[in-house]
DNA sequence: CTTGGCACTCAGTGCCAGGGAGTGCCAGCA
DNA sequence: TGCTGGCACTCCCTGGCACTGAGTGCCAAG
């Protein structure tokens, strides 16, 4: 149905439209690309591509513009991902090396990504549920009030204060701390429930219910969804693409403020450790229907997600390359610092 | 120099311009406001107001528009702050009551403020340096690695892990913890340096240098500037005012991403527990030269700042009223929950 | 000091014609 | 069957032009 040449035409249309920002016509296409055929032939191909829904024309006497499905085909079958230049890679490396703690790593990453791609960057903090536990600290602040602090290998530190129904003396707390650390050290946080249950079993009967309650609260509050965080950068870049959005960038900005939604979108990305691209209406969010999301997991265990949001008319090969490279570097940095 | 009527004319110009978004002329002014004089007289007054720099005309045959100094005069001498309606106050109250923890309070506050004013809201987390210390916890994670956790009365919890040069046994740590808590309980974090010094004095000589070092690091890292945080909401509202900004909202968005700058601006506000207004070029930030910042401290000890950023052509009376009201409510909520 | 009158300026609008880019269709050719 | 050149057609965009209306500054009179 679509022979080689028609695909080349589609590729050429996408590439030209991305760079010129203007509907591209048959003549210009024949000139700029060496397709070996005349404009008239290209016109025929374009008519067919339009029938198939890959391109469309804004008005009768204008050139063609790719549709969402056109971009999809381009990304899936036509694009060859641009690897970053050596200089770019070096710049990324040195920029990220300088980070002093986790907050700094995330901040630097998101700014870097925004700057490299010239679009809006989104970085999720390393997810606790996929992190390994490095250390658990339990402190009795008063007889019935405990503070639990969990430190992950990615450097995140989370604490909770919780009240318990029975008095726990210092030695019990100390024992609990030791047992918990022994049980969970190096485990994923998502494996903590079982480990916690085993710990509760081993404790003296009279405190067992209390201990179980503590552990339950702890696991639940630490592994809960509420703990996921994202950071944005480069929203100002949206204003530069103002003309790419029908009407206004207002709905886009609104959607970006809903971090919960962003987290969901990032989480929906398909294959781990591979760059996922979601184009226009493929994103199940009203305000983002004229944007695309290029995202990836990072870290060995897919501990977090990062990505870039921009107009559907974006430089997919370049963006994919950048996202992939940054994700790799961040993963490496996180491992080194753990 | 400026008699009563000229001031009334200025007030009328500001009010009309804010609502209509269009340069206002002498005739329209005479019709819409009962100034008791003819358009010709108003024209004379306007010419004078223009000489004095309070208003300006975009082009020869257009109406007048207030300048930054015009708004300044309006805010200082002409505006009567709109108190919020009873219904609005109730809505604010109930919306904020539902918050479960500090993060939630801040998030709700910033969204509320953005929604009520229809502009960009900025809320600073309660500053640690102005918070009182509720509890300090020191935990030996390993012989030479301590974790210090400080909990403030505003509900903020901050922790640091630090390495020390000498081994500290458990009893020393316990003693240190007790002494520190005794010394700093209820004090402002900014008063901690002296308290810490006293504690160090009282410790056994052999650990004194180590203890002093610990305390210094602790105070410094907790009270450092890096710990201040701000949260934004309503950036999408900027797009609605797109026409108010010369060229693009891009520089504004850029400035808003620099949280350090926002913190500085909030901190520069003059009188505590009073609403501060900074108009256009009064803000020492390039990108914000066509915006105004209406801000206030909140909490009894002025523990944090919050504010609203919008185009210089904003409804100052309404915005000031909203900021004041929200600041009061947040202060109250924080006290209740402490 | 205020007022009405008057001439002047100038942004904004509607209209129209011309240019240009692009398309679809068709007939001819390999 | 598929490619090509030619041709008529569509429609956006631009620039010129006249017109309108809001608004101003100035002046002479009350």
**Sequence of strands across the biggest β-sheet of chain A:** 7-3-10-9-8
Which two chains have the most extensive interface, and how many residues on each? Answer: A-B, 26 and 27 residues
Low-pLDDT regions of chain A: none
Major sheet of chain A, described briefly? 5 strands, antiparallel
By helix and strand content of chain A, what is the structural category?
alpha+beta
Helix content of chain A: 40-55%
Q: Give the distance, in angstroms, between the N- and C-terminal Cα atoms of chain A.
A: 53 Å
Give an account of the 3D structure.
The structure is a homodimer of 338-residue chains. The first copy, chain A, has 338 residues and is α+β, with helices and mostly antiparallel strands. Chain A is built from 13 helices and ten strands. In chain A, the strands form three sheets. In chain A, strands 7-3-10-9-8 form a five-stranded antiparallel β-sheet, with helices on both faces. In chain A, strands 4-5-6 form a three-stranded antiparallel β-sheet. A two-stranded antiparallel sheet of chain A has the order 1-2. In chain A, strand 9 and strand 10 form a beta hairpin. In chain A, helix 5 packs parallel to helix 13. Chains A and B meet through strand 4, strand 5, strand 6, helix 10 and helix 11 of A and strand 4, strand 5, strand 6, helix 10 and helix 11 of B. Chain B binds a DNA duplex (30 and 30 nucleotides) through helix 2 and helix 3.
